[in-house]
Amino acid sequence: DNKRLYTPSTIQEILNRHGFTMTKALGQNFLIDGNTVRGIVQGSGVTKEDRVLEIGPGIGTLTEELALEAKSVLAVEKDQRLKPILEETLADYDNVEILFGDALKLDLKKEWEDRFGQDPVHIVANLPYYVTTPILGALFDLDLPLKSLTVMVQKEVAERMCGQEGTKDYGALSLFIRYHSDPEIIRQVPNSVFIPRPKVDSAVVHMLVKDSDPGIPKEKFFRIVKAAFSKRRKTILNALSSYGFSLTKAEIREILEKSNIDSIRRGETLSLTEFLVLAINFPHEF
Ligand code: SAM
Fold first, then answer.
1. Among residues 193, 191, 158, 188, which one has the least CA distance to residue 61?
2. Which residues bind S-adenosyl-L-methionine (predicted)?
């Protein structure tokens, strides 16, 4: 255990020796706590059978733990300056590969398939907070055999990801996550386990990807969700009919009726299933 990266003194020594200064704009808050690192990896449920895709390895703290617990790790890091550090910290692990580039720009589907074909993907990451939602969107859109995601995010984002209908945390993000997976907050993480300390607390969300997606075209579904949440205080009828769809208010009233949804309800009270039924009853073009 002594050899592990995650003690504060080891990490500080490495950063100093390499003259590395963290860049706020890249969301660089590095973990310095073994319990948190092990907690994330245990919570991910990955075993020696599983291959992991990590976003943002930083100096390799979580990567090292994953290398020990998983079959292999492909980690994508945007900051080229971390190259000499990662070469040193992960030198002992032959089941790790670091790919330098922007996770939002690389063709991750191709990179994965070139190496591992159709092997299932487990994502584990302490995400850079400035791009949490675009990265989650891109990962779910990858069209790879994605099985699970275990990500550390800002606490408030974790609560929105797992938000239940009727609560203040429920919104388009909750529905996006639930469309694809069953999410759960598995760990609360105080800001004291990072250097530098972020202003906000964090939480780890584990998402088990659903075997088959709901079968409603995603784009259609999310246009309706977006419209429903565009006016928080309006009824679902008013929100949908003032959004700019090419449907009359009477037509939308009819769709709601057909979907068994009371037109005076508010968008934030509709469950995933109700939104799916609504999407089924919308015409192809609207
Ligand atoms: N995994 C490390 C840890 O837990 O200590 C570092 C986590 S830190 C919160 C986020 C990491 O993501 C940083 O290393 C940062 O350079 C990297 N990063 C930021 N934006 C990125 C992007 N668009 N694509 C890939 N990596 C990115």
1. 193
2. 29, 31, 56, 77, 102, 126
